[in-house]
Amino acid sequence: MQYKTSLLNQIRLRKIKKLTRQINALSDTYEGMTDQDLANQTSLFKARLEAGEDLDDMLVEAFAVCREACYRVLGQFPYDVQVMGGIALHQGTIAEMKTGEGKTLTATMPLYLNALSGKGAILVTTNEYLAKRDALEMGQVYEFLGLTVGLGVYDDDQEGDAETKRMVYGADITYVTGAGLGFDYLSDNLASSKSEKFLRDFNYVIVDEADAVLLDSAQTPLIISGTPRVQSNMYDICDQFVLTLGEEEFYFDPDKKEVYLTDKGNDYAEHYFAEESIYNADNWELNRHINLALRAHYLYKKNHDYVVQDDEVKLLDNRTGRVLEGTRLQSGIHQALETKENVKKTKESRAMGSVTYQSLFNMFPKLAGMTGTGHQAEDELISTYKVPVVSIPTNVPIQRIDYPDKIYTTLPEKLYATMELVKELHAKGQPVLLISGTVEITQIYSQLLLQEGIAHSTLTANNVAKEALIIKEAGQLGTVTCATIMAGRGTDIKLGPGVEKLGGLAVVGTERMANSRMDWQLRGRAGRQGEPGMSQFFVSLEDELLTNYGPEWVKKYFKKHNREDRRNYGRALTGRRFHAAIHQAQEKSEDNAVSARQSTIRFDESLRVQRQKIYGLRDRLILDDENLAGNVRQIMEEVIDSYLAENKERTRHQLRRYILDNYSYAFRYFPRALDLDDDQDVKNYLLKLVEEEVDKKGTLLQSEEALSEFYRLSVLKAIDECWVEEVDSLQQLKGVVTTRSTAQRDGMSEYYQESLRSYKQMSDFVKQKIARNVMLSTIEQSKDGKHSIYFV
């Protein structure tokens, strides 16, 4: 497989290099142009597109123009390897370019070319700082060439401003974060009128740190929350119950991330809560809260998955140590964590809309990405997003020395050995970047550095505002920077005077990460653009990676040899099998992550189909539906037919109640001629009530246009209310079916069956709600002639 991948890469590179030579051949031509003539090339390219040429026809010239503009505006002339990376991005692939190779500048050329179509080009970054920085800096190039630039990072007072967002996404080139784009997509599809919509059809997107965004961040769907639920009073009592459980009363598998009560635990729960069976339908909420408390205590770790700040539980990106501001866990788990940590509980909100990164980015006709580590995940990127990876060579050969791991039996041995290396490097002034996998471990190393009297900077979730400054200084003489995982932070570490002679930046990893891609991202912080550097990882058999995913023999070895009085205490383990165990553990960890992402995709598939249908219907209603009145009439007939089919034996009282609840609050009596046993007679009578109400509202609204808008609002409100219930119930359902595997049932199959049943039920509810909105709504006219509509 590796040989096949390498051969395909060589073939792709051969074609890319040919185009690069053609671009180089035009350098002198565009260098000789005035600024005005160079900028005018944009309008010439657009004219050629209108005349029938496509983007590929002008790739060579457009890249050469943008390259020259980069030099004139920024003083940076893209290297050949950056041009090659840009070509790969235009071709809709993932360009694998090592850290420090200048991916930000690389993206300017394909963004410029694809923006010429007038359909928009988007660059997705991992955080708001990078989006702002790149939009401001690179935006100068696009504006010089006559294109517009949008920044999808908003001030608080702009949030929700459709006009601002319309300008952002209407620009030729837009910079935005992945989460920002996802939430804007969901918000756009909650619009109730054309004036509230701001997104145009997706066209072309480049994702920076592509493996991090498209894979690592894609395990959790983006959810937009709405109205809060009634707060449950079961969180506290279920949390106390879980704290009293013995080891035999629950099952916990850290590998599969599963935790649930055993049979003995079920018996104890029934005794504790004085219930005959906690699995009765009446005890559904109790069962849910017990499972939430179990998950909060055993699946989520403080300072790894979340931190407690300002009496709040805040989620962490465990790759970077960042606080995920504004992001909350759904389905009650966030409230369970708040109960566990004894902080003020927030309201549990309904999910109004949900989308996964997989669904979001697969909506783009052309998807590309940049990363320093892509080939390790190429199979998954192809299967999920249909994008291959192209490895771009470095501009200058890599000089960094990557030393073999140093492996120790216990954590204290590893800590001591790590600190010895840091002290040795610091003593000669070589800058050190000390990287840990979690905030907790980072803080431990920070304390050890303080004890040794070593001045250092600490970069965790708690001081993210100073992040760029801290990183910028990390390559200076004598600097020690203690940090969580660095991949995707996007700020280059530049070496200070005299550092190259000392060996460049030293990257010291305090543990192996969840997958080898993260390790290589960390190594890549040193040795950029041919600079010297080194990387060294320290591992102990107590590290989370090995305790969770290591082979059984490692755990047995640790139990036997974790004494301080053994002869080889403090010495590194040199056997090949220990290195093999680390490799095996990483592979297992990544396999679990892949399985989790595939599970996210499978769970989202049902919702994705439903979402497309609902959002498509909403757009037709908002943007264009000429036969809306006829469609509403048909829906009213279907609702009546459904009622008649389900109520064959109707009484006068029951039909009267149905009319009062759905057609008219003012109904008083039936006409004498009405035959309650004749379906057609009853249907004609109900349709007559509909026509009378519609005529009445048509008279009030005074125009066909106003009546059509009334219909549109009636339908939209019905769809939105029912869709919010559907999304929320499917979120709740997902949390329930994951526990059904314990009863030898296929949770995914049950989820699909249940979601299909739920969708059919929702479709019926939507029609009934439309009928109620049309019939029972109230229209009032103000003195200035404006109408207000009040729905039930």
UniProtKB/TrEMBL annotation:
It is a peripheral membrane protein. Its main location: membrane. ATP binds at residues 82, 100-104, 492. It comes from the Bacteria. SUPFAM superfamilies: Helical scaffold and wing domains of SecA (SSF81886), P-loop containing nucleoside triphosphate hydrolases (SSF52540), Pre-protein crosslinking domain of SecA (SSF81767). It is found in: Cell membrane; Cytoplasm; Membrane. Monomer and homodimer. Part of the essential Sec protein translocation apparatus which comprises SecA, SecYEG and auxiliary proteins SecDF. Other proteins may also be involved. One of its GO terms (molecular function) is protein-exporting ATPase activity. Belongs to the SecA family. Keywords: ATP-binding, Cell membrane, Cytoplasm, Membrane, Nucleotide-binding, Protein transport, Translocase, Translocation, Transport. GO terms for biological process: intracellular protein transmembrane transport; protein import; protein targeting; protein transport by the Sec complex. The keyword Protein biosynthesis does not apply. This is Protein translocase subunit SecA. Transmembrane segments: none annotated. Residues 414-574 form the Helicase C-terminal domain. It is an enzyme of class 7 (translocase).
